User: Fold these one by one.
Assistant:
Number 1:
Amino acid sequence: MGCGSSAVEQSKIDNTHTEYEIEQRPIGIIADDGVEVPLGQTVMLKGRIVGSPIGDRFVVRWKDPNTQAPLTGESYTPTIAFSDIAGSVRSFNAPNNVTGINQYWAIDPEAMGRPSEFHQRMYGNQTQLADPALTYTFKGSTTNAYLQANFEGDVFSIPYSANAGLHISRIEMDINQTEVASAKTFTIGGQAFLAGPGAPSVAAGQLTTQRNDTELLPALNIAFDITQNQKIRLAYSSNMSNHNADMLAGGVSVNRILGCGLKTDTGEVIFCATAASAVGNPSLEPWCTTNMDVSWEWYFSDLAMLSAAAFTYDYDSLINRATWEGPNIADSDGVVRGWDIASNQLKATVTTSGFVNGAGGGRTQGIELGYQQELDDIIENTPLSGLGW
């Protein structure tokens, strides 16, 4: 296993082995047979490589010409011999249009019936890691109060009944978003590994937001008895609904650069925040709608009704993807400055992209036609009478 640091140059690759020349540096490499290679000696490493050219551990290490792993070109998945997973492979008859072979070996599809168990057999113990972009704490409380008054009377000799109400709703939220960062290493079980393709993101800190919303939501319902068996109903209401926790508290990825030229009091270089991308936006206003309905109902028997209705729902704002100026995104030293690349000046906020309340609202409108009748009214005095009851 490599330790410390070294520079290793690859000098030759062919189908049988990979040859490395190790410079005279304070590092040792242990080959597959467990023998430490003396410094300065050329070593032939066949197949799997133990130790990386920069002296750190990968999750798995072997040379792969198709990998995009940084620095070393080492793969993150080892070659697995069929003999190591004998219970998961079987032979198949070759297709009729294939000549030269009668059978071939491949993974048995039935062995993949339980995906988790199959991955366990193939790759050993698996580690589940939290996704920082979806890791947050969200505490919310809603307090509601209701007032209602009922009325009845006549308008131009037409009887009516009505109720008017007020819904007072207060939502309080305490949101801690996770800042998502990229890192050169990540840790599993106390062991640090180099980050590369497929490596997990890491949590770099938290952004805290506290807010509350109070809404007054009126409602009015009126029903007119225009005849003994016909009604006209009018309804008006305001409604509010909060967003789900992911939309409010999802993580934030921050871009930071050295170009601002700032240092701490101790001389450390400051990486200045210039832009951010957010999964959640704690400043999203709740969904607010204004609903209006008018309907006509005809009760042509005790258990039958024909109806028609028209409705309109107006939305205060719709959710769009856009940018806003985030006031709580700090630089690498924890201070909020907001570096503007275009002007090379501090602006106290960081341009953030994500979900926002749109400038314009929206509307849903339509008509409804309804018919309701007891089935026995239709099939009465037939052999099917009583069906469904």
Note: The longest strand covers residues 202-227.
Number 2:
Amino acid sequence: MHVAYSRDTVNKDVGDTRQLFIDDDVIAVVKNVTRRQHTPVKHPANPIIRRDKPWEVTTYFRTSAFNVIKDPVDDLYKCWYEDFYEYFSKGLPSRERLFYAQSTDGLNWEKPALGKHFIDGYDTNAVFNPPVVMKGCPSIMLDPLAQDPSRRFKMVYLNLDTSKRGGAPGGLRLDYSSDGIGWTPHENNPIIPGWKSDVEILTYDEVDDKYVVWGRYGGAAGGSGHPDMDSWFAPVWPGRPEGVWGTRRRIYRLESPDLENWSEPELLWDPDERDNLDDAFYGFVPWRAGEMHLGILNVLHQVDNTMDMYLHYSRDGRKWDRFLEHRPFVPRGGEGSCDQFMAETPNQPLVVGDELWIYYGGMNVHHDWWIMPHDQRP
């Protein structure tokens, strides 16, 4: 029996919803057509924000360390970025500050003196400069639901006590702000007590009306207590035999209607047979595009010690597929470039006119630069 295609019986009412021809959902038949993944154009002035102040030490534009947001209230682009001024000092957790920059056009940035923290006699752009307990790995978003103007900005972060080995992570915490500079801790911190990971990305899904945290729930690095795991690397079993757990970095999803009551962690990103033996999933940031979900997966290639970002798509926000070519969305640069070894982002694209701007972090040192020769350190 043969079934013929009929326009009268096979159709989809898309209304005025933008359609992306990433999958075959609205494609009946094509002729002489192919799919290609295009590469964003890097701005010729990159890096547009760099270490250039005497109080900056190891500025970090990483998956877990910076955000860029356009604020409609004052029409400013705002960026928060971490600075590790003591990294793995004396075997204890790093000491870190959070700095702030702003721009009127998103390209030319200033680092305003905020009058909050003086470092070596300088009035700096530091938002946080804590002496002992760090607000580590912050993720900042502008909350579209905020009724209270003093809570427009939300920041989740890992509480780290640098006086204790391992940092004694105190769960995932939440702060509020009206302008992104002055912050107030949430009254019921920690919002996720069991959180111990050093990568978290906070988003809001306007269709499902849920706040979502993406991150490595429950542990740092690979999250494994395997006896053969050294400080940074662990054995990998591609076939996943019974009784053996995952040792590579993987990503969980938690959702909440109010930032206080959270779902159980759901494992959505786990390296499998399609990934290289050393690939580890570092962080993930999704966004809505028409009726689809798009997202960037930041991947650590552990042997080469480099980072790349890959574009993925989904219909339901749970089952994610690769693009056909599965190549880095924003490729790393060549030798001597500012993004030679790492290119990654925790940011959703910003719509600027008829363009999408993707703010990403580039590094000309390896991921584990502190265990590399001194001439390969920042």
Note: The chain has one domain: 59-376.
Number 3:
Amino acid sequence: MKPSTTLFIKKELEMTNQKFEITDIAHEKYPFLYRIRALRDIGTEVKAGDLGGFVEHEGNLSFEPGDDAWVYDDAIVAGDGCVEKNAAIRNQAVVCGHACVSREATLGENARAEDDAYIRGASMYGSARASGQSMILSSPDDPLCAPALYGQCCVYGKVIGDVHIRGQAVIVSNEEVCNRSLDVILIDGQSRTVLRNLERDVLRPRQIKQAEKEKKPKQRETVR
């Protein structure tokens, strides 16, 4: 379930922000946006004093203790958009409206999350766009199995798991693409293919678990 952006902002504003400050460096095109500056080291890339991208207010970027989410380069987080839980917004990517980018998701180049989109663990590059009520989610079984969006693709529906979308592909509202298999689903324009590791076709002996090895066969009772 998508977290409430309003509750996120309220919770953030109740804490003291020791992660970043909003400078007086305004965006050239959108003067209501200002650059941020790190007040402490963040992850492995950002050092205290480094400048980041642009935000509209403090609620746009989580400053909970231990959260290394960051807005890099000339990226923008505006409106009630939020970036949290180690997510990264890079280059000229934009998060706006009520969109939420969370759980180590990455938006780069000119990717955009808008409206009520929720991005969890996925990566978006090129001019990929998440709009409407879209949800782009890593697999609940394995966070490493996450969607990857490229090109000029647009998602309005739900995408879950190891799904790669590129070109001018469109996932429409109420459409759900879910992949919990060991293969990769590739959606390119109007075509859909499976990217399969050849090792998957090699048969191997059954792996016997230690507990099964130690299990003794039941003795049959003597019939009298």
Note: The chain has one domain: 5-201.
